[in-house]
Inverse folding.
């Protein structure tokens, strides 16, 4: 556990990362931005981890950056550069985590909180979810990282609507536009946990390989990365998990995947 962030692991290899500042709607402090990057890199390198859920304590996912500390931590150009480096580092680490990542978004997921959710592979909301990017109300232009995450999730036209209008969007609109993948009938976190358990039950090499191939293709790098993609496919096809899947199918039982 670290200040403002808590971890919980279950027996299936699902790790839940909780932002724990409910009194501030889980607004992210500079210390938290700095901690999230190394944390997600460590989770990505841990072979026991099958999926990672990001959520917020209390009734909200994340209200964005903690503006109340800006006077202290963003008072000079050097401070601002260091702050942006920490925030972008955290977001990029979540985006680049090789494990499947899910955001459980109840309540507010706005500004930097929306960015954290968009950095995850999948986003689950509920009836309380409200998401948006109010940068246009604050005279701010989002940089390439966060804008790129928004663009790839919702497309150009919807990204323009979200950024130009600075609206706080209800769950139904978030689902329609692509900010959310699912809206749970009850709370977001249990639904995200069920989805993570479903993913964790599958072959880890298949899930990790699918994520890497999709990311390469989304970046338009498939020609340059053809050898890498071939190696990913070949590794899965010659793995113990592949043989276990074949045996379990013939034996009419659930497979036991071990990630090798």
């Amino acid at each position: 556990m670290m200040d403002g962030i808590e971890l919980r692991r279950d027996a299936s290899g699902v790790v839940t990362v909780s932002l724990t500042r409910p009194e501030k709607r889980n607004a992210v402090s500079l210390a938290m931005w700095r901690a999230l990057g190394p944390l997600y890199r460590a989770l990505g390198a841990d072979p026991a981890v099958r999926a990672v859920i990001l959520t917020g304590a209390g009734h909200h996912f994340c209200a964005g950056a903690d503006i109340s500390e800006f006077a202290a931590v963003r008072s000079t150009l050097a401070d601002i550069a260091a702050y942006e480096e920490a925030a972008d580092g955290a977001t990029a680490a979540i985006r680049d985590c090789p494990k499947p990542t899910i955001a459980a978004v109840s309540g507010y997921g706005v500004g930097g909180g929306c960015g954290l959710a968009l950095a995850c592979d999948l986003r689950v909301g509920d009836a309380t979810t409200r998401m948006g990017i109010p940068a246009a109300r604050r005279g701010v232009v989002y940089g390439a990282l966060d804008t790129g995450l928004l663009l790839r999730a919702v497309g150009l036209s919807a990204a323009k609507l979200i950024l130009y209008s600075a609206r706080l969007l209800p769950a139904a609109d978030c689902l329609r536009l692509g900010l959310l993948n699912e809206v749970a009938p009850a709370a977001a976190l249990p639904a995200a946990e069920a989805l993570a358990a479903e993913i964790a039950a599958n072959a880890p090499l298949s899930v990790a390989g699918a994520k890497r191939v999709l990311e390469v293709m989304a970046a338009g790098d498939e020609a340059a990365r053809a050898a890498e993609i071939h190696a990913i496919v070949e590794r899965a096809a010659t793995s113990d998990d592949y043989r276990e899947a074949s045996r379990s199918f013939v034996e009419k039982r659930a497979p036991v995947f071990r990630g090798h």
About this structure: The longest helix spans residues 77-96. The first strand starts at residue 5 and ends at 9. The chain has a mean pLDDT of 94.
